[in-house]
Specification:
seven-stranded antiparallel beta sheet, 920 residues
Amino acid sequence: MKVFTLVAISILFCVQGGNGQVKDVAVSELGTRFVVAFPPMLRARNEGPSQRPLSILVASPFSTTVTISSYGNGVGFAPLNRTYSLKPNINLFVPISELALFSDAQKIEKVAITITSDLPVSVQTYEEWYGNGELNRCLPVHTWGTEYHVMSWPTDRYFDEGFQYRPGFAQIISQADSTLVTITPTVALKGGPSLAGIAAGVKTSIMLNANDVFVLQNLIDTNDFQSKTSDMSGTVITATKPIAVVGGHTKGAVASMPHTLPPTGQYAAPAKFVRNNFHETLLPDYCADTSFVVVPMKYTQTRTFYPANPAIGLSSDSGDVVRIIATSNETIVYKRSRVALLDIEIARLKKGESFIDSNVIEGTFYRSSKPVLLAQYGKSFAKLLQTQTGKPDLDDVNSYPSVEAGMPCMQFVPPITRWSSKANFHSIEGMDNFILIACKSSDASEISIDSHGPITSNTSKCIPNTPYCTYAMSIGAGSHLVTTSSKSVRFMAWSVGSLDGFSQGRAYASAVGLNLFRQGADTISVAVTTEPPTDSVCGENKLIVTVRGNTGLYSVTPIANNNYSITIAPFEQGAMQTVLVIRPINNSAAADIQLRIAARSGEYKDVAYAYTPLPSTVQLSFASSVLETSRFFPLQARLKLTNTGQLPVNVLNLNRVDSTVNFTHSFAFPITLAANESAEADCLIWPVKVGADTFKTGNYSVRLSVASRCNEGTKSFPFTVEYGKIWVNEINFGTVSKDTPERQSLAIIRNPGTLPLLITRLDPKGISGPNFYPYDLANVPTVPFTIAPNDSATFIVKYFPNGDTGIHVAEVEVKSNAELINRIRISGYSSVASSVDDENVDLGIMITPHPIPLTGTSTISNLPNIPLRLVNISGQTVAEFPTPTNGQLQIRPNAHGMAAGTYYVVSGEMKVLVRLVVAP
């Protein structure tokens, strides 16, 4: 299954069918798959490649992606695999190696090039050599047929170090394996490595596989050239699977041209400059019809035509050649023009027979009693200027061809029923370019080129007693677009151009903007099924498309599309059924779509669907109404999903919408919630790193989106990143004897806040070692570590004077996610022995504040529930206090008449040095 937000297998334009009903039909040159090959070229000596000898031109009404691929040919043409982005109505030129040219007759080679695209495109191949050049309109694979009548041209010859004979050809391109091709030639065909020569009228078959190319050439008889008996036109080619056929000539002149120009004299030169490798992809026989309009080709603005000169083998170069091939026996052909005001019968043909109208100089209407095929050839041109010497002893035929010599080209002429309402084409740089248009005279005011106004501003030539007029207009190089302002208008257009020159010219002609719908009657039905009722609100519909008739399905095109995706089951052109699934891309927004489903007969059915979103019934909430975390820690929270609706909901996912925060969760989706049911899971939320600061403090918001199958709801939640809270104690060992053994006290780090406290570093300063004070630490926690709210961490501080006297001061810096660095201050004084001999034992007492202010109140915590007394350093009790309550006691020194100084707080076995000061 392939999913598109906009899908168009082909694009539809408006034409009028044979019954007079206006209906949309498929434009033939637009498709999503092409298989092409460059036709054989037998160039003359010294005719080399230009800067871009071979190119593929791709254009589309859409922005799309195009892939060009091939197998290569094993003799220098390397395999291709290139992808391009295409802009609307702008031709993409893709250069191809000149080694891709196919020139061997009767030899199968896998040299076809495949072009695929996401949306419809048109494709042309272009050859540009010094002395050859032609533009070929390629047809997408889905328009290929299984029966063709070849359009070619007789064997030609020119003199270039001996006579060079050049045959006509038909190139067969296969797109599928096991394609059996049967050939019934009108003249003898050349043999080769893959197939022996074929006699005229003898059916012969060959098996081709995908991307195979096979070329037929008529057998060369050096005594038979420029004659009907050396022309393979009318050869019938049939196949068991659709194929493409390109017809034309390897290098020939259209109408009679001498093999040298001038034919005699000192200026005689090979007449290669009036011969070209002209060709065109042929229309399948199913495109044969009974009514055609031909527009004479334009060349340069200054070209002048000259009459025939039979004495030197030069036919008239005025007008064009039109070839008409019958696809049935007993076919009568009629012609109408400004000369022939009414229909005149010009031919009676059998199946495969050709009629040549050799001098078409004005717009002409052809009709036939049975379906026929038409091709149009631009003639070779040679303006001979003669210089008279006036001297009888010299050759007076000293004429020479001027730089106005020109080459022939070839294009097919679609029947009127194949006209369309849009044409995209590219005019070649460095050439004289024209656009030819045939249309109803009443429609001309609705047709414009590149949106520059109607073509009626140009001179028209109308065909008497018909509704048709013709236009031929000069146009600049580059991409162009012919459009109509009314759906009922249709036209036919051809892009032509030439480069006249002495030896390096070229010419091209190509039909643009045509349709290839199939004859038949079809009816189209669309059955709609939806998913179960709980999901139907999503607007998802499964469409089963069925075509009943004899042509089958052609295309599915979104005429309008707002917020719908389309999934189309793959189908071959002509399939009788396919399945589409349409669904809103964004379930939270309204959507509408109109689809046009077309059969290959041109019949179509429009279907439209719309979607109105319902509000999400899944609500998001957190267990805590206050969301905050301390610096360096993700916010840990409990998230709840609640279905407030009356129907079950299938919750598909939960995501953050913005990018300023990170978010993870432990939900396992999908989750089905019944009416009023909830689901909970843990989640983590934290800010995105800003510079070197991983968790910058401040206020944030996380926006979460919860999606169910049918809708989506979003909600924002504010949260805060705060600094941690920290408290540390001070340690004072008081005055001790210099010979006192090791004393110990507890260093305490407490988290008085409600958020985690992260200790990132403990940095002792002035502790231990020969040049530091006599302190040491024990049982120090390994950093980093976390202290939970209302919890604490401790370690031991050791004091050992070792006979040293004096004041000993040190500290431990505590770095954390608190705003500032905190310090555990440590002090002690060692001296001679005092009257206080007892050990100074501190079992974790806490004094806040410390030092104790004489005029204030201090709280002493972590006390045993026994009476407390204050003792001076002489061992005298100066104050007694009642038994502590819950290990805590408040003291007010001035209530006991105490003076500033150093004291011991004594409680049972506990004794700790404190200081009383006048001010804190």
